[in-house]
Write a structure and sequence with these properties.
There is one protein chain. Strands 2-1-3-4-5 form a five-stranded parallel beta sheet, with helices on both faces. A four-stranded antiparallel beta sheet has the order 6-7-8-9, covered by helices on one side. Strands 10-11 form a two-stranded antiparallel ribbon. It contains eleven helices and eleven strands. The N terminus is likely disordered. It starts with a helix and ends in a 7-residue tail after the last strand. The protein is elongated. It is α/β, with parallel strands linked by helices and about 270 residues long.
Length: about 270
């Protein structure tokens, strides 16, 4: 579903859902459609997420946001469907609503945990200790109370991945760049770049924030640290080194925006 469709649906669906769901969905739209969300495409490529919720509109927007992050996403509207899909899909993460008709989220969680190592993040509209304890006793790995921000959900997912699938977060694909943090390597198109540790950290910062202008002062803080007292022209020196290694003679990949800073522009890069 394109992002423009989310904006169009913003005005037409809210008469069909409860006030609480309406507020929640509107917050998800705001989170998903920010530029911050758009730059993270493919960061989570290869990670399978199953979302289970009996509210179709919430389900649709969670699916939209997670796919925009690069996740491979499947959805289910009820517990029975969730079990069937999980058997074939083998998700790494399950986002599971508690209050569903028929088989509730607690029972789904119990069944999933019998045969699967997937991390289960349970969702509920009730902020009651008894429900949280029950969910954790059934094997849930985390618990979130609606409404919540999409960024908070991503943070919870990252925490579960670090705990159960640490290797996934060490590898990031962004356009023609492939970053392997475990090996401290960056591949550009079909070749591994020969980078010093500082060059690696700077290019990683620029690529993961592609489309965003990073000021010289921000780059200095991130790469050299807040207590750096040297010449700030060191940033320009390293930018020139990176351009040379990327064969970016025309400065189309790493752009200089005079008076503002530097930005990786992937729209100028052919894969």
């Amino acid at each position: 579903m394109p992002l423009k469709a989310a904006a169009a649906m913003n005005e037409c669906i809210f008469g069909l859902v409860s006030t609480a769901a309406m507020v929640f969905i509107r917050s998800l739209i705001n989170d998903i459609m920010t530029p911050k969300g758009l730059i993270r495409m493919k960061k989570y490529k290869g990670i399978r997420v199953l979302v289970v919720d009996d509210e179709p509109n919430i389900l649709q927007f969670l699916e939209l946001g997670l796919k925009n992050e690069g996740f491979n996403v499947k959805t289910a509207l009820d517990g029975v469907s969730a079990i069937t899909i999980a058997e074939e899909f083998q998700p790494h993460i399950v986002i599971l609503d508690v209050m569903m008709p028929g088989m509730d989220g607690f029972e789904v969680c119990r069944m999933l945990k019998e045969n699967d190592r997937a991390a289960v993040i349970m969702l509920t509209a009730k902020d009651e200790v008894e429900d949280k304890v029950k969910g954790l006793n059934y094997g849930a790995d985390d618990y979130m109370v609606k409404p919540f921000s999409f960024d908070e959900l991503l943070a919870r997912i990252r925490a579960r991945l670090r705990s159960q699938y640490p290797g996934f977060l060490e590898k990031v694909e962004v356009g023609p760049f492939f970053i392997d943090d475990s090996r401290k390597e960056i591949r550009y198109k079909d070749r591994i770049l020969d980078l010093s540790p500082t060059e690696y950290n700077l290019l990683k910062l620029l690529v993961q924030n592609h489309g965003i202008v990073l000021s010289k002062s921000k780059i200095l803080d991130k790469i050299w640290g807040y207590d750096f007292n040297g010449d700030d022209n060191i940033v320009e020196v390293y930018i020139r080194l990176l351009r040379s290694k990327l064969n970016d003679k025309d400065r189309r990949i790493i752009r200089t925006l005079r008076g503002l800073g530097y930005m990786v522009d992937l729209s100028n890069v052919r894969s």
